[in-house]
Every structure is written in C-alpha cells, then in structure tokens.
Amino acid sequence: MNIRHLFLNIPNLLSLLRIVLIPLFLYLVFTPTVSHRVLALVVFGFASFTDLLDGWSARKLNQETDMGKFLDPLADKFLVISAMVAFLFLDPLIPLWMVIIIVGRDLLITGMRYLAIRKGTELKTSKFGKVKTAFQMTSIFVIIMVFILRSYLSKVTYEFGTSSFIKYNTVIDIMNSSLPAKWLILGPYFIMALVTLLTALSGLRYMGSNWRLFLPPYSQKD
Questions:
Q1: 81 neighbors 106 (Cβ within 8 angstroms)
Q2: Domain count along the chain
Q3: pLDDT tens digits, residue range 99-113?
Q4: Which structural domain range is residue 158 located in?
C-alpha cells in the first residue's frame, strides 16, 4: 500500500482535519470575547465529532490501516493537549502539575503505540481508555462553556470580577469566600482534577497491560 493511499483515505483525512483545526481553535479560545469563545466551542465540537466519524468510516468503508490506527489517537492527543495547555494560561487556578500528568501520559502512550508498531504487534487497549478520552473531550467542552459564561457575566455585571479574584486567591480562599459565582470560578479546577485522576489511572492501566513492550527486541528486525 503506497503512502498516498495511506493518507488520502477518508478516515485518515478526518484525523488530519482534526489536527489542522487546532490552530483555529486556539486562536478563538484565546480571544476573550463571548463570540470568539462560542466559535471555539463549535470548532472543538466539530473536531470531536470527526473522531467518531473517522472510526465509523474506517469500519464502514473497510479502510482500517496501521497508519490510521496510529494517526487517529495521535490527533485526539494533539487536540486534548492543545486545549489543556490553553487552559493553563486561561485559568490561573489550574496548576501546571495537572497538565504535566495529562501530557506526560499521552506522550508515553503514543511512544508505546509506536513501539508496538515497530514490534509488529498491537497496543492492548481497554474500554477504560475510551471512557477516559470521552471524558476528556466532554470536560474540555464544559470548561469552554464556563469560560463563555464568565466572559458574558464579566461583560454585563461588575460583580463578577473573575480575573483579579482568581489571580490573587487560592482554591481554598475562593471556596471560603461569599462570592455568589464561586463554583463557576472553581468549576474548571475540579473538572481538571478529575480528568487528571482518570488520565493517570488510564496510563497505569496501559503500562500494566503492555509492560512487555519495554522488553527487547524493539523492532521486528532486531
């Protein structure tokens, strides 16, 4: 099978489209207006939909390839990592260690998947991994909605001072405050904490199921 056929089938094109949409999504989500962040939500929702569509089309059109098996989850990881890193800059309450765990896990699994291909075998997956990915996508969608609501409330009322309040207060301070919208402020932090936990558990499960990949030989030719 030639390189052109590997890339130019419908499932792989959908995976590539998901990657191409990332710069547009980042531009929109970093623009602090309600309209831009609504568009960011639409772009992310469409990109997430292509994840379902490329898997379905690969099975329906009988276009499953090794390239597609590698490219599909890689596109998911790029999309998720881009959003998580963006959140790190958009919400001062989200700590760096959460993003490091999420990014580190995804890079590790990508490396394991590449190693499995070199060895001529497949990475053992589980439903838990798929649940983790679905939860990540849903969480990103919800967090963007929170950002939209924050932008809207900051525009229509002076009482919702999220920028200064978040910047100079800790999670505990905000929890103990009397601010009416404090759970809207704390929402992304707690969602990210749960995403981090599920991502870490998923990574440990992958390593436990695929630990033999780390043993030699490291390719079919070795």
A1: yes
A2: 1
A3: 999 999 988 988 888
A4: 3-208
